[in-house]
Specification:
It comes from Microlunatus elymi. This protein has 232 residues and is mainly beta. The chain has four helices and 13 strands. Strands 6, 8, 9, 10, 12 and 13 form a six-stranded mixed β-sheet that branches. It has a four-stranded antiparallel β-sheet with strand order 1-2-3-4.
């Protein structure tokens, strides 16, 4: 039993509480809540009493600006782009020595990585919740790539798409990688977005800051050996 409960029990035993109730006096706990007693029972009901009298339900706790921001952020969707990889097989003509099927690339051949589809454009979002307005500015800031060979790397842009007509074996100017061993590799491309948020209470900003979010897509790459054919 807490301290307030001990005090109430003693008061009931002494008849002090009944005397106060009979006299129409109100008892209040340390938090300022009126405490109601039954004359034949030491149990009590603590309530917040309005001007009209009678216990009222406690008001629903007001959300903090941080909670409102988190709710709005949770309602957003981030569509991670798929990994684009080139050049394709039609350029280097690499095939499996076992099956003869086309492979994605070859050992020592520079590969280009870039983002395909998904959310790559900057955008702004404004939503209202719990009497507050949340303004978000979102923009992609780059890629983090795990090529599956134990040598992850980061790119400060969304990569540069490879296209036909480029000189063979040209390295990517922004986001590239070279495999050193043959094998099947699972490539993970993680897109990074930056969020600048601001929460207003209708008059003034009450919370603002920056946060990073990410989204990941994967694909498989089959890396083989370039075969040199000598005529004559």
């Amino acid at each position: 039993m807490d301290e307030l409960g001990l005090q109430l029990t003693k008061a009931l035993q002494s008849g002090h509480v009944q005397a106060q109730i009979a006299a129409g006096q109100a008892l209040f706990d340390a938090a300022g809540c009126q405490v109601i007693y039954s004359a034949d029972n030491a149990d009590c009901v603590v309530g917040d009493f309005g001007q009209g009298g009678g216990a009222q339900k406690a008001a629903k706790p007001r959300l903090t600006p941080q909670q409102v921001y988190q709710q709005v952020k949770a309602s957003l969707t981030f569509d991670a782009p798929a990994p684009g990889v080139g050049p394709d097989h039609s350029v280097h003509h690499v095939r499996s020595e076992v099956t003869g099927l086309p492979l994605d690339s070859a050992v020592g051949y520079p590969l280009w990585f870039w983002a395909v589809g998904g959310d790559q454009q900057a955008k702004r979002v404004t939503k209202t919740a719990a009497g507050m307005t949340v303004s978000l500015s979102l923009r992609p800031t780059g890629l983090s790539i795990d090529p599956g060979d134990g040598k992850p790397f980061a790119c400060s842009s969304m990569g540069t798409p490879w296209h036909r007509g480029m000189k063979p074996a040209t390295p990517s100017p922004t986001c590239g990688h070279v495999y050193e061993k043959t094998g099947n590799y699972r490539v993970s491309m993680t897109t990074r977005w930056s969020i600048h948020y601001r929460v207003d209470d209708g008059k003034n900003p009450v919370l603002q800051g920056d946060e990073a979010v990410t989204g990941t897509r994967t694909r498989m790459l089959r890396i083989g050996e370039l075969q040199v054919v000598v005529d004559g």
